[in-house]
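Extended Data, record Response regulator
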Amino acid sequence: MAMILILDDRATNRSIYARLATVIEDDVSVEVFGDPLDALEWLEGNRIDLVITDFKMPGMDGAEFTRRLRALPGKSAVPVLVVTAHDDRGFRVRALDAGATDFLQSPIDHFELVTRARNLLALGRRGQSAPPAAGLAEPLPAPPLPPGADPLQTHGTDGLARILDSLPAQVSAIDREGRCIYANAAMAAALGARPRELVGVGAAALFGPQRAERSRAADLAVLATGASLPPYREEGAGGQLLTTKAPLRDASGEITAVITTSIPLGPEPER
């Protein structure tokens, strides 16, 4: 069983990361903390396989937390994934100097967090060093897909479609014309449909008239700027949702669609 610790002073982030952690792999146990000192106290007497921590927190930042973690017996090689909202190399260098393994900049891409965490767990089990932390070098390009492969159906050996269907989030992809080209199982279930029945429908049928108008405006902003949008709350199928949008690019780098990810907002996980 993989044991993952999540540290963030914001309850919403803790809830999101905890939900995503449960789909990193089968049989995951998650411990969630809002205070670095509480997390360190728990770590003194417990095994851990991966730590996901915010960088900027009251009283102790992610670099200092990582430094103290590394000083604990048996914790010198635990993978540490640091999440920071600051696009500043200085923050990354400080965390790296303290022993961080990898970085993500918020607002996070949910798929990227799951994939990076899965890779870090595998590296930790093999006792290998992780690759250079994100943001300290040019990112490596994704491996090319086989000729004719659909990027929504192929993702490494696991299969992207299976990963998306296992996420506790409603995921859809809308093309430039406003038509749905993909919906995962959670999205379809929220609408009482099958995923294949949603392909080709317009945003109004997918989100409802009021939400569709806002969604389309957000999609156009992503298409125009090429940048992901920060998370925002909205009402949708299943109640309150925390939604993010990100561009989907083809092999040449052209944006072909917008990925919408909506996580139902539930109660904060107990620990």
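Summary. Residues 128-146, 148-158, 267-271 have pLDDT under 50 and may be disordered.
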